[in-house]
Write a structure and sequence with these properties.
Number of strands: 18
Largest sheet: 7 strands, mixed
Radius of gyration: 21 Å
Shape: globular
Strand order of the largest sheet: 4-3-2-5-10-18-16
Strand content: 15-25%
Oligomer: single chain
Helix content: 25-40%
Structural class: alpha/beta
Bound molecules: S-adenosylmethionine
Length: about 400
């Protein structure tokens, strides 16, 4: 779906959103000009999401939850955190130590997880949150103030990863998909990088434009191509997140003994880069609608790309971690007793509510109107192949 197509179907921006988006666009446009007229998509995504005080995650709009742009599993039901608590309790029983949550969003999962761990008698020594968005960290603090003192006092917010490696559990729910990624297109026997330029005659508007792939992207693409079972067709466009490996390496270096649990949307590599998935996995979320035009609503919509789980596994093993589990959300939650949690609820009204929430979690489907599916003949492959987030457990002994 092109820019005008998506814009015409999305809800209009409020005057405040339009003003804010204009400010973010002006900042990015200045960087495009300073860089000679073209920015890599990775840099564009980084600024659009994380420019201090301005980017989507850094500024003050309500993003996550039913009143925001998208809903994550822990925002949808606390049953998710109740199951996750059982997994954390198993690890903490072996390692002791703490929980470190990366990118805690609204803080709902942290609160629910602490409550569930208290009920299991397995509270961590502390619950640390490392959040890149100052705005979200503030919201987390405000929300988690409400917790009982015995839980609240275990919370701590970190500015960076701990210098001394920790024992315990690291959690990252829907964080990897928010790491800025590169975009590429196969051309002839080589690769071009898809980036962002200024749209002609549109003020600080943007358009996608090809640039020369730098040595890092060209090398990553060669390695990717060599690891796939077949060739990718001419014009094939997709994403590659080169930040995954350094991010996982930094987490591994901070984990002495314990587990890193990553949950996200994604696919193993050969499915991610299936030859039919000709335009990649990039998605933007705005007011519960999904579309694929990152050039509009800049700074007031989410931008995300699915995760290549093979890259995650390779990065983990490169960093000395061992892949100890890989499961769909349904399998993960059912194996942690989702059904017993629902069955334990005696009140019939609450039971019916929980049963509905559980069904939604194990049939996890985004509730967005996927605008791009109206136009893409490959929508069934791209959008319905794997909407089930996958949980990945990487363990450090
Ligand atoms: C899609 S939201 C998910 C929020 C929450 N985990 C949930 O599931 O509701 C992505 C979160 O990751 C944070 N984030 C992005 N990059 C990060 C990084 N490198 N380290 C820590 N947090 C990060 C964002 O600020 C945001 O809180």
């Amino acid at each position: 779906m092109n820019a005008s197509g998506a814009r015409s179907i999305l809800p209009p921006l409020t005057p405040e959103e339009a003003q804010h988006s204009g400010n973010v666009a002006a900042l990015i446009a200045a960087q495009v000009r300073a860089a000679g007229g073209w920015l890599s998509f990775e840099r564009f995504m980084e600024l659009a999401l994380y420019a201090p005080g301005l980017g989507y995650y850094s500024a003050g709009s309500s993003k996550i939850g039913s009143g925001g742009d998208f809903v994550t599993a822990p925002e949808s039901s606390d049953l998710f955190s109740a199951c996750l608590a059982r997994q954390c309790a198993q690890v903490l029983a072996l390692t002791g130590g703490e929980i470190l949550e990366l990118g805690a969003g609204t803080g709902r999962m942290a609160g629910a997880l602490l409550g569930a761990l208290a009920a299991l008698g397995r509270l961590p020594e502390r619950y640390a949150i490392l959040e890149v968005s100052a705005d979200l960290a503030e919201r987390q603090r405000t929300r988690l103030q409400e917790l009982p003192a015995q839980l609240r006092e275990r919370l701590v917010w970190l500015e960076r990863l701990p210098e001394r490696p920790i024992n315990g559990v690291m959690l990252a729910n829907e964080v990897v998909d928010a790491l800025p990624c590169r975009r590429f297109t196969c051309r002839g026997s080589g690769v071009r990088e898809l980036g962002i330029a200024l749209a002609e005659g549109a003020g600080d508007g943007f358009r996608e434009q090809f640039g020369t792939a730098d040595a890092v992207l060209a090398q990553a693409w060669r390695e990717l191509r060599a690891s796939l079972p077949g060739a990718l067709p001419e014009g094939y466009t997709s994403e590659v997140c080169l930040r995954v490996a350094p991010w996982i390496a930094s987490l591994a270096a901070s984990l002495s003994r314990g587990a890193l649990l990553i949950s996200d949307y994604g696919l193993p590599r050969r499915h991610y880069y299936h030859p039919n998935r000709v335009s990649g996995t990039l998605r933007c979320h705005f007011k519960q609608r999904a579309h694929d035009d990152p050039c509009i609503n800049v700074g007031v919509q989410d931008i995300t790309a699915w995760v290549d789980f093979t890259r995650v596994a390779e990065a983990g093993s490169e960093a000395g971690l061992e892949v100890s589990g890989f499961a769909t959300q349904a399998a993960f939650l059912l194996s942690l007793g989702l059904e017993t949690l629902v069955a334990a609820e005696a009140d019939p009204v609450q039971h019916a509510r929980l049963a509905g929430e559980a069904r939604r979690l194990y049939n996890w489907l985004p509730i967005y109107d996927d605008l791009s599916s109206q136009t893409s003949r490959l929508a069934h492959v791209r959008d319905h192949y794997s909407l089930d987030p996958v949980h990945f457990l990487l363990r450090q002994n």
